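Hi L.,

As promised, Flavonoid 3'-monooxygenase-like:
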Amino acid sequence: MPKAQNTLSNIHLHLHMESLSWILLATAIFVLIFKLLNYPHGSTKNLPPGPRPWPLIGNLNLIGPLPHHSLHNLSQTYGKLMYLKFGSFPVVIASSPDMAKLFLKTHDHIFASRPLTAAGKYTSYNYQDILFAPSTDHWKQGRKIYLNEVFSPKRLDSSEYIRVQETHDFLSCLHALSGDPIILKEHVLRTILCQISRTVLGRKYFSESKDKKESLTLEEFQEMLDEFSVLNAVFNLGDWIPWMGFMDLQGYVKRMKALSKRFDRLYEHVFNEHRARMKDEKEGFVARDVVDVLLKLAEDPNLEVKLNIDAVKGLTQDLIVGATDTTTTTIEWAMSELIKQPHLIKKATEELDRVIGKERWLQETDFTNLPFIDLILKETMRLHPPGVLLAPHLALEDCKVDRYDIVKGTIVFVNTWSIGRDSVVWDDVDSFRPERFLGSDIDVKGQHFELLPFSSGRRMCPGYRLGLKMMRSLLGNMLHGFNWKLPENMRCDDIKMEEVYGLSTKRKFPLVAVLEPRLPSHMYHSPSGTTI
Ligand code: HEM
């Protein structure tokens, strides 16, 4: 072979070898990246079963607009403990009472933290609230403050008069509207907002019509709460694929920052008013509401963890957002289920007539004598728990759960919506039958893992007693005070039961009803003289 030709084929061979090495190198890098992205699926860990994840997005492609439904369907294939990847994060889903118990009771100390999300950072004062705070000393102290200063039986008793006044105003408003179709949730939300604002902030701080002088209208406040609910439940890409976060492709972070500014303006106004009273009254100052208590605590040098002003805002905000959507949504679901089954309303009103009579309204001391109202609420929260996936929990350490390895940093969701439809636990799962709880000791206080609307363990809802009081009283009195009908052109089958996912999972189509008074007319006179 001539020398020149020899050299040429050497070059060819060299080039061929070189491209081969490039191909091999590229393949090796691809495999490595794929393995890294899918870690720990490829590791020696014994992970719960789950679908194979895609690079980059993991299993996010399997999650639809109602994530609890998507996860429920997946659990029918992969089982009650399921492993997925959301972007680059390992996620496990518990879909049965025994699995929920392992995370919320047996290993509660390991799973009581929260992942750091953009919502917690931008809408909740950089996690200086309680709901989004990881398991830190700030969070522990905040829960203690709540339990002693807001939710103790004594504190709840001292704010009862507010709930009574606002409930009477609510009933009076409904009476004035009797005969006309009403959008129920608007009235319930307004009442809950009035109750919680007066208890926490001292007064309402919003006006119900545009011409009154308040920094905020009711409409704007409701809009802010809706936006909070949406932004705190969205699948924000930057949370799951952190390197994409800076692009904010969905625009959620921008909205979070804007919302936070609106809430902050409200708190600044509220706090300035409270500080002014504190200054005026000096030694004679006595705390009248939760903000007073928190601002006083912020001055306390002996507090274990210093409470700065952002933390006071975070703690204040959790009470407002924690109380409003959850209770309003539950009452709306309850009435939607009841109105489809008039015999249940009849049963409830028979009990009310027997226990309360027609000459007074239901009070908080009557609750123990009205078991059917409680059965209705339990059955509502079985089928329509507001927090369908609870809030996300985070593994602080590696842990073995039901023979599977759950690695540190795994995010845990408990699918309470799925548990409420578990046919191993419940008969006739899709039917709304409050009587199913007759003679059963299952309650909603975190001891029975088949019914977890308020969760259980260290992260259990601290406001559940207040939530129950507000719901029992409003629902009971709504049934006591009125006959419930559908607008003329509607039949029971027209009531759609579709959902919209959010911090609380709400009805897609608001319930519209027509009310007719059941009690003598003098009963509806509101003591505070509120008109609509
Ligand atoms: C129907 C009424 C309510 C329901 C169904 C409900 C449900 C829940 C759920 C599921 C959680 C998350 C638990 C977890 O992560 O495991 C939670 C947490 C929380 N709830 Fe409620 N809630 C209700 C009413 C209230 C009320 C009335 C308040 C306050 C006034 C409140 C304040 C909070 C707070 C501050 C947290 C955060 C607790 C923490 O992360 O440590 N909730 N709630």
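Residues 130-131, 143, 318-319, 322-323, 326-327, 330, 386-387, 390-391, 453-455, 459, 461-463, 466-467 surround protoporphyrin IX containing FE (CB under 6 Å).

Thanks again for sending the construct details.

K.
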